[in-house]
């Protein structure tokens, strides 16, 4: 760690860095940032930087508000969009109380705690997200009361001279400059919708990368005169934006999900992990899909999963076992398709991992796979096959979460209670709205 700190201090000096931003995340997954002068960095490493935690969503109660942000030197990067004028760098922080204890409501700590539990069982947790988002002409609504996308292209479309090409090229280059490897980028199914897939990394690095990714996308959009949104379902009648996440557990250099000769090359550990995700999917939904709007995506068709089942290469299933490459055993993995792009990645990954580990610990039995397109079945057919629905609203998801020992234990009491309280308030505010739909349907007729 000392070597890392020395490297950071040396780099700040060599590159003439003028500001260092200390980043951390509140419980809802909003990035927080405080800039310090280079001369203050050494002190921040030694003692942390004090701030009022009660002013940040969910971090502390007002009577215990003093917190310290400790920069993690392994996350040091200069920010490419700041350019050569006043070069600026960033580091992610771990949050502690004044007596040096990890702050119970620091989302990064929640994930670290769950990763430590996995490590005790001999596992390292890797994730690879496919992040979807919309590019809009602006953050204001068009004449039809809907957001205006920058193009009307579709899945994998090549748009000559289109905004999205330049946008993706610039974004990918910027991400690579920040040490974040990109695997694919392409136009998605909705007008103005894009997807960028980040290369596999351990879950903590990836959660940091996702927070950086969202900032990069927003910055490049501003630079190019457009607006980027990670809202799960911004446009009626168009696909929502998901963050399908591929996952695997490794034991040392060995992929614990791989077993040669097993069905789809998925080991017993892999099958139990899937069973854990399926059994606890409803309980973790209020975190993997944390907004009222998230459920418009889950129940709006367009390849979003609505029912709890798994399948091999079945895009209507909640958990998918992708096609394996016969000579690449290490690539065995599973894909969780409910997560949306607006989730807090630290809390979501902690809960997905906890659900999978529970399946391994308790040796859950994996139900039969879904071979049909689950959306095309009738309700009674789905019931007969045992495919339960995911929560149909945020209110529904909160009822499941409230009863969940797994979620309470993983998040810890403070975060658990805060999420419930905050999200109940969101639901109540939503429920009190009189929507355009009601006015159009009822005003003249009634």
UniProtKB/TrEMBL annotation:
<dbReference type="InterPro" id="IPR004809">
    <property type="entry name" value="Gln_synth_I"/>
</dbReference>
<feature type="binding site">
    <location>
        <position position="297"/>
    </location>
    <ligand>
        <name>L-glutamate</name>
    </ligand>
</feature>
<dbReference type="Pfam" id="PF03951">
    <property type="entry name" value="Gln-synt_N"/>
</dbReference>
<dbReference type="Pfam" id="PF00120">
    <property type="entry name" value="Gln-synt_C"/>
</dbReference>
<dbReference type="GO" id="GO:0046872">
    <property type="term" value="F:metal ion binding"/>
</dbReference>
<keyword id="KW-0460">Magnesium</keyword>
<dbReference type="InterPro" id="IPR008146">
    <property type="entry name" value="Gln_synth_cat_dom"/>
</dbReference>
<feature type="binding site">
    <location>
        <position position="244"/>
    </location>
    <ligand>
        <name>Mg(2+)</name>
    </ligand>
</feature>
<feature type="domain" description="GS beta-grasp">
    <location>
        <begin position="15"/>
        <end position="100"/>
    </location>
</feature>
<keyword id="KW-0067">ATP-binding</keyword>
<feature type="binding site">
    <location>
        <position position="132"/>
    </location>
    <ligand>
        <name>Mg(2+)</name>
    </ligand>
</feature>
<feature type="binding site">
    <location>
        <position position="315"/>
    </location>
    <ligand>
        <name>ATP</name>
    </ligand>
</feature>
<dbReference type="InterPro" id="IPR036651">
    <property type="entry name" value="Gln_synt_N_sf"/>
</dbReference>
<feature type="binding site">
    <location>
        <position position="130"/>
    </location>
    <ligand>
        <name>Mg(2+)</name>
    </ligand>
</feature>
<comment type="similarity">
    <text>Belongs to the glutamine synthetase family.</text>
</comment>
<dbReference type="InterPro" id="IPR014746">
    <property type="entry name" value="Gln_synth/guanido_kin_cat_dom"/>
</dbReference>
<dbReference type="GO" id="GO:0006542">
    <property type="term" value="P:glutamine biosynthetic process"/>
</dbReference>
<feature type="domain" description="GS catalytic">
    <location>
        <begin position="107"/>
        <end position="446"/>
    </location>
</feature>
<feature type="binding site">
    <location>
        <position position="335"/>
    </location>
    <ligand>
        <name>Mg(2+)</name>
    </ligand>
</feature>
<feature type="binding site">
    <location>
        <position position="337"/>
    </location>
    <ligand>
        <name>L-glutamate</name>
    </ligand>
</feature>
<dbReference type="GO" id="GO:0004356">
    <property type="term" value="F:glutamine synthetase activity"/>
</dbReference>
<feature type="binding site">
    <location>
        <position position="183"/>
    </location>
    <ligand>
        <name>ATP</name>
    </ligand>
</feature>
<dbReference type="InterPro" id="IPR008147">
    <property type="entry name" value="Gln_synt_N"/>
</dbReference>
<keyword id="KW-0547">Nucleotide-binding</keyword>
<dbReference type="InterPro" id="IPR027303">
    <property type="entry name" value="Gln_synth_gly_rich_site"/>
</dbReference>
<keyword id="KW-0479">Metal-binding</keyword>
<protein>
    <submittedName>
        <fullName>Type I glutamate--ammonia ligase</fullName>
        <ecNumber>6.3.1.2</ecNumber>
    </submittedName>
</protein>
<feature type="binding site">
    <location>
        <position position="315"/>
    </location>
    <ligand>
        <name>L-glutamate</name>
    </ligand>
</feature>
<feature type="binding site">
    <location>
        <position position="188"/>
    </location>
    <ligand>
        <name>Mg(2+)</name>
    </ligand>
</feature>
<feature type="binding site">
    <location>
        <position position="303"/>
    </location>
    <ligand>
        <name>L-glutamate</name>
    </ligand>
</feature>
<dbReference type="GO" id="GO:0005524">
    <property type="term" value="F:ATP binding"/>
</dbReference>
<keyword id="KW-0436">Ligase</keyword>
<feature type="binding site">
    <location>
        <position position="195"/>
    </location>
    <ligand>
        <name>Mg(2+)</name>
    </ligand>
</feature>
<feature type="binding site">
    <location>
        <begin position="246"/>
        <end position="248"/>
    </location>
    <ligand>
        <name>ATP</name>
    </ligand>
</feature>
């Amino acid at each position: 760690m000392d070597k890392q700190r020395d490297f950071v201090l040396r780099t700040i000096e060599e590159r003439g860095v003028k500001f260092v931003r200390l980043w951390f995340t509140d419980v809802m997954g909003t990035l927080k940032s405080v800039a310090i002068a280079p001369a203050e960095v050494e002190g921040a490493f030694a003692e942390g930087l004090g701030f009022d935690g009660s002013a940040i969503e969910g971090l502390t109660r007002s009577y215990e508000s003093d917190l310290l942000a400790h920069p993690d030197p392994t996350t040091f990067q200069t920010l490419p969009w700041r350019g050569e004028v006043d070069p600026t760098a960033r580091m992610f922080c771990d949050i502690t109380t004044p007596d040096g204890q990890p702050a119970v409501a620091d989302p990064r700590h929640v994930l670290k705690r769950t990763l430590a539990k996995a490590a005790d069982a001999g596992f390292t947790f890797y994730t690879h997200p496919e992040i979807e988002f919309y590019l809009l002409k602006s953050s204001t609504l068009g004449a039809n009361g809907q957001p205006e996308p920058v193009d009307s292209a579709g899945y994998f479309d090549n748009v000559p001279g289109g905004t999205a090409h330049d946008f993706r090229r610039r974004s990918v280059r910027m991400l690579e400059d920040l040490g974040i490897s990109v695997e694919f980028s392409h136009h998605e199914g909705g007008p103005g919708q894009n997807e960028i897939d980040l290369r596999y990394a351990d879950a903590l690095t990836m959660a940091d990368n996702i927070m950086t990714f969202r900032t990069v996308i927003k910055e490049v959009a501003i630079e190019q005169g457009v607006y980027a949104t990670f809202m799960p379902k911004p446009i009626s009648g168009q696909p929502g934006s998901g963050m399908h996440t591929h996952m695997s557990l490794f034991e040392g250099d060995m992929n614990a999900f791989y077993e040669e000769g097993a069905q789809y090359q998925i080991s017993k550990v892999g099958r139990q992990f899937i069973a854990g995700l399926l059994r606890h999917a409803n309980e973790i939904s209020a975190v993997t899909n944390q907004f009222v709007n998230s459920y418009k995506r889950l129940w709006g068709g367009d390849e979003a999963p609505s029912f709890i089942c798994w399948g091999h290469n079945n895009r209507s299933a909640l958990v998918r076992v992708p096609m394996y490459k016969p000579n690449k055993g290490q690539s065995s993995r599973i894909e969780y398709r409910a997560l949306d792009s607006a989730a807090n990645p630290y809390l979501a990954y902690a809960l997905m991992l906890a659900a999978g580990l529970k399946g391994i610990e308790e040796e859950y039995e994996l139900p039969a796979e879904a071979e049909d397109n689950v959306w095309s079945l009738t309700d009674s057919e789905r019931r007969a096959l045992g495919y339960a629905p995911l929560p149909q609203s945020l209110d529904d998801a909160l009822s499941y979460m409230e009863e969940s020992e797994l979620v309470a234990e993983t998040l810890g009491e403070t975060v658990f209670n805060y999420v419930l309280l905050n999200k109940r308030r969101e639901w109540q505010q939503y429920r009190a709205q009189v929507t355009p739909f009601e006015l159009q349907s009822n005003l003249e007729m009634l």
